[in-house]
Amino acid sequence: MTTVTPAADKxxxxxxxxxxxxxxxxxxxxxxxxxxxxxxxxxxxxxxxNVYLSFTKWNQGLGTPKWIGLDNYIKLFxxxxxxxxxxxxxxxIVSMAVVPTGLGLIIAxxxxxxxxxxxxxxxxxxxxxxxxxxxxIPIAVAGLLWSWMLSSQQGIFNVxxxxxxxxxxxxxxxxxxxxxxxxxxxxxxxxxxxxxxxxVTIFMSGLARADQSVxxxxxxxxxxxxxxxxxxxxxxxxxxxxxxxxxxxVAALKVFAPVYVMTQGGPGTATNVPAYFSYFNFIQTGxxxxxxxxxxxxxxxxxxxxIYLLRxxxxxxxxx
Amino acid sequence: xxxxxxxxxxxxxxxQPDARELKxxxxxxxxxxxxxxxxxxxxxxxIVLAALLWIAPLYLAFVNSVKSKADxxxxxxxxxxxxxxxxxxxxxxxxxxxxxxxxxxxxISFWVAIFGVLLSFLTAYAIGIGRVKGRFFIxxxxxxxxxxxAEALMYPLLKMAKMVNLYDNIWSLIIIFSVLQSAFGTYxxxxxxxxxxxxxxxxxRIDGAGSVRLLWNVVFPLTRPTLLVLMVFFFIWTWNEFLxxxxxxxxxxxxxxxxxxxxxxxQYTSEPTQQAAAALVGILPTLIFFLIFQRTLLKGxxxxxxx
Lengths: 320, 307
Prior knowledge:
Number of strands of chain A: 2
Number of helices of chain A: 14
Strand content of chain A: under 5%
Oligomer: heterodimer
Strand order of the largest sheet of chain A: 1-2
């Protein structure tokens, strides 16, 4: 596991001399054994096994896997459902990363330097808590809650609209989760509902950390809230924005539970995403090798994001 | 979500805005640039309306779960219940055997909080204090581990669980989640521990403390608050997990709260008030947990985003 060469390690040690003197008394690596051992089994072996499975055909996981080389991948790259699921991921990135970042910035900034100075910190804290609430609900529960509200026959939206006379009966009202065109929209609205609390909270803590005197100076010079938002807030929050965009994009690519609970990827494949598509092949249809190939591609894509995030954080650490 | 972030220390996050700043903020309300004008009341009204819209689903779940089904059909989902009934909640509770689900979820989350933090702390001790060779490689590996999708580990883990006879047993989940959570925990704690005051470590070493005594008498007591925060997070994250329970716990008696909620989604479509009751019952445990650990949880969201 240790690939760092002795020379490189010595160099880094010398550079960090004051804080990282080599441990003189006692051995330290044995403490890492339980963690590394369990990690190796649960993550490294499991992942390697999954990659191996992606080169095999293993119907229902019965008998022994049959080596078929790159066949799963060749099939995968010609599979329209696979590409469609990634296209859906792009839509999910918009509703889980882009929209919450944009709205989160506006809400956090409005709360922090418009509402709080005028109406007190209590009011802004209460509003923030309201936006944060969906974050603490298990995603499966959020899915249950929304499929209840969006249900075509008994759901709150349709029953209310009929009550208000917008539609003669629930059968004429939109089938939010059952209509191929609407289902994607509905699921994405739910995800925005969940995500805003996360971005608002991060950005508000970022603003609390940032230097307020710049804002005050600009306000004295007559800059409007919007001018300050555009020129100062966005710049001050640049580190938060990049981290939030990256982590929410990773989360968007991994979306599974909301899709499973609300639509099962349907109707048809209208809300299918790579994670669900992989699960579907593994468990529902028993095409284990194919499911493994989908999840391997998704994992590789996410590893690229992880490395990028790692570099970003290292850079931010240095700039500090 | 914050699982993906790291680097920062808890110390940074626990810093409260100082009193002077708060005073300045409250003073700003009175006059100058921050006068309350008609426009500013409008902005407040708009943002409060948005916030109310945000919690409306929870309010609706609450209102409708204590409504009778007849009431729901006649006066609709938006009205207040004409009389309060708990029959939906009790009906769902009994049908889903919810006490059992709560107990399963509690056990899994509790043990993951303990074992996950223990594993994280020991590995992070070797990395952050012991500065073992290859630590950067290990940390990068851990970070990749909590970024890859669960689907890329799920099937082999399912097969492994069957091999060791832990399929459909909550212990398979306790083991898997302890390890997965500890990948993040180690990543976070290692950076906390590498900022550990070196004077204290030096003093202890000069006094002849070996790695065992240093861990138990010096590092552990001083990191205990951080470890408790981490336990709170491991607990709630594990409670909310969906995919692994779905795959590893097929039988009704071993299911978790989260899983039973996801599966209940399609079950009561003709019973809207019972579905509301199900949602409410699913929300309550985490809501109570949130109210108890509110400060810790809000701090933790930002934990590690930016130093």
